[in-house]
Amino acid sequence: MNTTSALHLLSRLLLPATFALCVAASAHAQANPAPGLLAKYNFEDIPAWVPDWGAGHGSTYKPATGWKTPFRVVLDSENPHSGDYSLRIGLNESSTKEKIVHGPAIKIAPAPADRPGDRKVRIRLHARAAGLVDNGVGVRVLERDEKNASIRLLANEKSLIIVPNSADWVELNAEGTLHSRTASITFMVVAYQSEVPATVWIDDISVELTSAGDSR
Asked: Residue 80: what are its φ and ψ, rounded to 5°?
């Protein structure tokens, strides 16, 4: 038998097994759909002014790195969770107002007409902190409608996640079901405490859209 004939015979023998594997893989994918990644922030390969990230103190907002007091936001190359940088938020002046650092708006696909409540958002991030009081810094998600008007905070929680003091990086997770009218969401780190100095580092943030029935 020449080489061409041998390869032809081998392909005929392998075809049924390959087809069976493809069908099995397809069935597994349908039974276990991968979460839909809406956004991921690892603070790599971006300018030092951290484009698209903003910050607010009370009712005053400006680009995140535009603040010098009562807090300062910078990229930090010392001990990131991964890669070359994390985002460092340093509280350096006493203030009782909320200090908010937020990412860009994340667009959300409309809910299915037959399942208006079947949209769940899962937040994952890594953080470390020093100098925080209990409940001093949290993570929240703001929901907005298609006209960019605020609807509510995800899960109606002022803080979905509380950031703990930790010299080491810790993984933090939370999730909540979106309002049926939500068209975009915004990830926020919010400092409530007035004690200074205190510092929070965040890195490797992911925002996923999953089915409300997905408990993974």
From this structure: -70, 160
